[in-house]
Give the backbone structure.
Amino acid sequence: MKNVKWIFIFIIFFQVVNQNVFAQQNEISIEIEPVFPENQDEQIKGYFKLNVRPNDQQALHIKVKNKREVETTVSIEGANAFTNPNGGILYRENVESEDSLLLDNAIRLGSLIEVDKEVVLKPHEEREIPILVNVPDIDEGTILGGILVKTIENTEENRVNTEDGEANFKIDTEVVHAIAIQLDLPNSASTDFELGQAGFNLLGPSIEVEMKNNAQKLQRDISGTFEVTDETGTKLFDGQIPSFMMAPSTQINYPVDWTYETLEKGLYTIAVELTVDNQKYTANEQFRIGEEEIEEYVERTQPVVPQANTEDTSDIPVWVWILAGAIVLAGIMFWLGSKNRKQ
């Protein structure tokens, strides 16, 4: 029993040490803090929310601290605001997806930001980084974007065996920190929302409903319901669309999960009713699921199961192996018990 006890203690010790090492390796290497100017909204602490005027040159600063024991290079760039189809706002220079787009009239805040693209920080150095935002010549709505601060962390060296010997390679992890910038102009923009076409996406599988926020405003509290019917008008399933927001002048394909018990080819209709700023928006859009989509879905969701080998590869029945294993295990337990009694 003493041996078993020490083995148990060793396992616990190993797990604790391993967790501590893992935490140290994944510790964030920099700290970022916005420095708020006088025109910052006093109710907001986590990001820049500023009242500005047309053609202003808004000066901002962020504090960046290097927590490492070595010199660290930090990359900084402006970002635009996209709507995440699954909820929230994405801050990126570009999003390579048809499911989240900036409309043609969108103001790209990323292109209006001036900042040093690269900063080198000494070990434990803290520095204020100046940022200049050039407000365009408009007096209505909200402009949304942000600042992205990037570092390379957790560089790992690995070796692989090749025909010519060993090859070394490195895995670099890019960590991105985002600070949002919201510029509120003197006049509010009116709501301009639109529901568009529907389509089917096998990756969910889901129905995708096109939604557009045409206004230069951060559109909050979009919510509603949906119902899906087949070509005979029979209801298959329905549900709620929880409240979400859309960035100014953006478009998304909003995903509605396919929750019906079967997936068959045919013509379907999704009826959507949304409330946006106390206004009702409705749409009845048809979409088709084809034979090719069904075949692809079956291939993805039903992997090939290996056939059982019907040939007799052994003269020994399975129950014999089970019995032998039980006898060996009983012998080991008896030997351990006898040894402990002698001690």
In short: Residues 19 and 25 are 10 Å apart (CA to CA). Residues 318-342 form the longest helix (25 residues). Confidence is low (pLDDT under 50) at residues 1-26, 307-311.
